[in-house]
């Protein structure tokens, strides 16, 4: 399951990264369909080779990827608000595109996918940042997500 979720997170990151370069009015169904149709045939947007095409993407990976992408896009204003609240001296426009996409993804998980332990979400985000971000990405992502997780915990205790 965790390997499926890692792949789902990585695919979601790639889709969200690509969406940075499109207008705000996106057809999510079309974006997802295009991604799955071209997964094995096009250059990967983040520079990593794609699957070899011999094995179809497991349904669990597809479902998790699509849940993440749809969730991040639907909740983007709230996610950005949560990120801004802890990103002192950083505007969202100043953040690296990969870092911001990964922060949105992990913040969505922390906020809405509460069946996933916080430590798992943070660890996965850091590991993915090591693979796709700059050398500064893992500590940057870790610091912000830790603050977001603490605020989430405080909010849940207050409820």
Automatic annotation (TrEMBL):
| Gene3D superfamilies cross-referenced by the UniProt entry | NusB-like
The organism is Pelovirga terrestris
> Per its UniProt record, what InterPro entries does this chain match?
NusB-like_sf, NusB_fam, NusB_RsmB_TIM44
Sample GO molecular function, one term:
RNA binding
Q: Which domain of life is it from?
A: Bacteria
Q: Which GO terms describe its cellular component?
A: cytosol
Q: What is the lineage of its organism?
A: Bacteria, Pseudomonadati, Thermodesulfobacteriota, Desulfuromonadia, Geobacterales
The record's section on NCBIfam families has: nusB
Q: Which family does it belong to?
A: Belongs to the NusB family.
- Write the record's keywords in alphabetical order, separated by commas: RNA-binding, Transcription, Transcription antitermination, Transcription regulation
Pfam families referenced in this protein's UniProt entry, alphabetically: NusB
- Protein name stated in the entry: Transcription antitermination protein NusB
Give GO BP annotations, semicolon-separated.
DNA-templated transcription termination; transcription antitermination
Residue ranges annotated for the NusB/RsmB/TIM44 domain, each copy included: 8-149
Protein task: Involved in transcription antitermination. Required for transcription of ribosomal RNA (rRNA) genes. Binds specifically to the boxA antiterminator sequence of the ribosomal RNA (rrn) operons.
